[in-house]
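Task card 7
Instruction: Convert sequence to structure tokens.
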Amino acid sequence: MNNRYLSSTPPVVLNLIIINALMLLVTELLPFGNGIMGKLALFNPASPLFHSYQVVTYMFLHGNFSHLFFNMFALWMFGRSLEYELGSKRFLTYYMVCGVGAGLLQLLVGWLEWRYGGGMAALVTPTVGASGAVFGLLLAFGVLHPNAVIMLMIPPIPMKAKWFVVVYGVIELFFGVSGRMDGVAHFAHLGGMLWGFLLLYYWKKRGAIRY
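Output:
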């Protein structure tokens, strides 16, 4: 990776990718990796393993390389233009708000599942990944560039960003409500989009951004 390539990626996006990659290496390769996962992953608030700081730390952990790759690829694809447009400080604020907001909604849903019959699985299954924050980035890209064309990978068809966001949101809501595709934090994804929308709307009302 040469310096010219690195210079094309703004600092917050680049450092987020580096931090997430390092955390995967730590949890996968070091003997105390499982202990780190147990401390920093996001657990159900009814679990004895839950700590309030986990709503921040969980978004820097990933279950495996493919999980990391797809999240970081989306961060790189959409985050670069957003950081240039919003500025590094505002972009980082947006990313963190989306990630924490995603974690909070996932906590609420997880607690309700446990409270109304979720059993032990709801207590011991943690949430990890930057997906909630990344879905917030997708929302922001769709709001700021509604008519930009995105080429889907599967199926390989072009789609305007605004419809891409709508379709993804509907899919996540369907899977979240129906309970299909277990093992994916669908409500965390929706939470990232929801908090992203609210923050963009707040900035727009204040005149900080325009769209």
